[in-house]
Design brief:
About 40% of the residues lie in helices and about 25% in strands. It is of the alpha+beta class. The chain has a three-stranded antiparallel sheet. The mean pLDDT is about 95.
Length: about 100
């Protein structure tokens, strides 16, 4: 599912809300998560999971085409750890579609 599909499904499930308001809410939430991660903060959504930033140290890598050694700089990457409830729902669904409530 992509962001526009999420917005459409939420708008359909909540006909009393304008589509533009649903879109604004989704964008605000995602921007908040992005801004928090950019500051190095951790974002936890109970039952869903936790977003954090992990540091990857500098290392020596290899160019796959030439085999030549290359220096890879240190970097920070986003990391997501699923929550218990999400893991259980995904494992329990076994291919069935869960409706958004």
């Amino acid at each position: 599912m992509i962001k526009s599909e999420l917005i459409d499904r939420l708008a359909e499930a909540n006909p009393h809300l304008y589509h533009r308001d649903v879109e604004r809410v989704v964008n605000t939430i995602l921007d908040g998560v992005t801004d928090a991660l950019a500051r190095g903060d951790r974002v936890e959504l109970r039952g869903f999971g936790a977003f954090s930033v992990r540091q990857r140290p500098a290392r020596t890598g290899r160019n796959p085409r030439t085999g030549e050694s290359v220096s890879v700089k240190e970097k920070h990457v986003p990391f997501f750890k699923t929550g218990k409830e999400l893991r259980e729902r995904v494992d329990g669904s076994r291919g069935t579609v869960k409706e958004l409530s």
